[in-house]
Amino acid sequence: MTDDLLARHRAVLPSWMPLYYDEPIELVSGSGRRVTDARGRSYLDFFGGVLTNMIGYDIPEIREAVERQLATGIVHSSTLYLIRQQVELAEKVAQRSGIPDARVFFTNSGTEANEAALLVATNHRRSHQILAVRNSYHGRSYAAMGVTGNRNWSASGLNPLQVAWLHSGDRVRGLLARLTPEEQVDAAVEDLREVLATQTAGDVAALIAEPIQGVGGFVHPPDGLFAGWKKVLDEHGILFIADEVQTGWGRTGEHFWGYQAHGVTPDLLTFAKGIGNGFALAGVVGRAEVLQAVPAISFSTFGGNPISTAAGNAVLDYLIEHDLQANAARVGAILADGLRSAVGGLDCVAEVRGKGLMLGVEFVRPGTSEPDPALTNRVFEACRSGGLLAGKGGLYGNVLRMGPPLTLTEDEAREGLAILVDAIRSAAEVAA
Question: Quick one: signal sequence residues (predicted)?
Fold first, then answer.
């Protein structure tokens, strides 16, 4: 029973691993965009295992690709031997990255991907100075935590890097919040110049930034900000790392990668989550001269293994053949427009934001910009009661996050929208 499993979980797993919901659920089966819990309750999934089940559940093309690899008897060989699936996926990722003369290094998670990007950037520049963005999240290892600008996810103050912090794209609160998009870009670029002049020794290795901040509550800057930043970075030879762990593979609808909204090309790009559709797969792709700047032997034991890359090839092929980027734009617009129309005017809703199928609703105390995590949790629980799984996030835990599979249909979007609107309105009435 689920209750017994919960007790067993608490007896053997650390308390800092959170479980969703007042009554945590065990998911036992899934198909398409729907999952079923151990009590037989079905849910429309608008969070996809934290934006990881990008194609959905029980997809024949992905299952069959993995089964074909399993049938060979080779689950693992290590990268000391040629791996056909790995090479084929690396070719596709390099071609799609938009980075010239690209090389790819596979890892198991976004944390490892960002760690690898920081490793090569600091080696290439011979500096441990990094620029990072407030409200960001880049992973749970020491270096990745070191460039994470959200204290809720920084479990240690120890840091192997020297980090200087830039303003985020937050339009609800903060120094840049009340500016127009054009003014915000200008102010952020001016801030970057001042940070370089006052907080660094000059020889900074890289700036790492998410096009849309995932854990940060889907906060994102005005389009073009990265271009303003990169002009300054290029003046100093500083590398730009785009953390596309959540924004990649067409999720924003507008572009295949989030960075493309800014008209720039990064030196390094990290990816994870959706490319494996549940299988552990991630990596970093970058210019050869940068990615090869590692003065020692290194490899990832399980990174890019035959099973995960078989899944990754099937995922990427499916994504392109079914033009899921276009679907994200089309179906995401149904959700975004519907939410803005139905609840955007409520005085407890500070902002409906995001792009494509990466959407957030930020809740505040009525008439203020003060975060309201209690209201957010009521909406979150009401969604679950209504048959919809969503996520939470934001610096203050007051953002409802939606990142459905990119295969979400228009009918499913409207179904989920109805549940969301009802949950928000009912929770808002209680708050009033």
Answer: none
Q: Which residues on neighbouring strands pair with residue 362, listed in sequence order? A: 351, 399
Torsion of the alpha carbons at 163, 164, 169 and 174, rounded to the nearest 10? 120
Helix, strand or coil, per DSSP, at residue 36? strand
Torsion of CA 144, 135, 330, 273, to 10 degrees: 20
Eight-state DSSP code of residue 277 = T
Report the alpha-carbon distance of residue 268 to residue 291 in Å, rounded. 8
Asked if residues 398 and 364 have their Cβ atoms less than 8 Å apart, the reply is yes
Q: What is the pLDDT of residues 222-281, one digit of tens each?
A: 999 999 999 999 999 999 999 999 999 999 999 999 999 999 999 999 999 999 999 999
Strand partners, 103: 286
Q: What angle do CA 202, 205, 207 make, to 5 degrees?
A: 100
Q: Where are the alpha helices (DSSP H) in 281-323?
A: 288-291, 306-321
> Hey, what long-range contacts does 378-385 have (CB within 8 A, 24 or more apart)?
378/427, 378/430, 378/431, 379/423, 379/424, 379/427, 380/20, 380/21, 381/21, 381/22, 382/422, 382/423, 382/426, 382/427, 383/46, 383/419, 383/420, 383/423, 384/21, 384/25, 384/43, 385/423
For residue 427 the two structure tokens come to 């929770």
Instruction: Tell me if residue 234 falls in helix, strand or coil.
Output: helix
Strands of 388-389's sheet, edge to edge? 27-31, 34-37, 42-45, 388-389
